[in-house]
Amino acid sequence: MDTISIELNKLKLENELIKKNLEDKERKHASYKEQLSREQRFLKRRLDQLSLDFAMSKRRSVSECSSSSTISSSYSTTSLSSAPSPISESDEVDVIGYTSTQSDTDDHSSVQSASSDSGVIMSTCRLTLSEMDVM
């Protein structure tokens, strides 16, 4: 009987060690799971914020384009009718000109021109509305 009781005690101790080991692992896994859950919530909020920022940026870009065309049509209409314009003299407009050419040996240091393989030169300059009035 003595050996049976010793074996039984050993089995009980091993069983307790296994339980403690499992409990420790469960705590670590629960902690890790909670950390991953927090990171996931943070990343979802960050993604939502970035999506919102991107949508606002896109909306702003579209809005700027449409307001730019509205300004252009508004400017040409008001200059013909001599009505007061809501556009100030300091408002700036980007003017882009395209010129077709077969030469790719254009001056690359020039701000006004750039060369490409297709033989198209795009030049840009910035004019204020008062300069456009002279044109």
Q: Quick gist of this model?
A:
With 135 residues, the protein is α+β, with helices and mostly antiparallel strands.
Give a description of the structure.
- It comes from Diabrotica virgifera virgifera (western corn rootworm).
- Keywords: Coiled coil.
- This is Max-interacting protein 1-like.
- The chain has helices at 2-81, 129-134; strands at 92-100, 120-128.
- It is rod-shaped.
- The relative contact order is 0.07.
- A two-stranded antiparallel sheet has the order 1-2.
- It has two domains: 1-87; 89-135, no CATH class.
- The termini are far apart.
- The protein has 135 residues and is α+β, with helices and mostly antiparallel strands.
- 64% of the residues lie in helices and 13% in strands.
Biggest pleated-sheet summary? 2 strands, antiparallel
Gyration radius over CA: 36 Å
Total domains: 2
Strand content: 5-15%
Organism: Diabrotica virgifera virgifera (western corn rootworm)
Region (Disordered): 62-117
Biased composition (Low complexity): 63-88
Keywords: Coiled coil
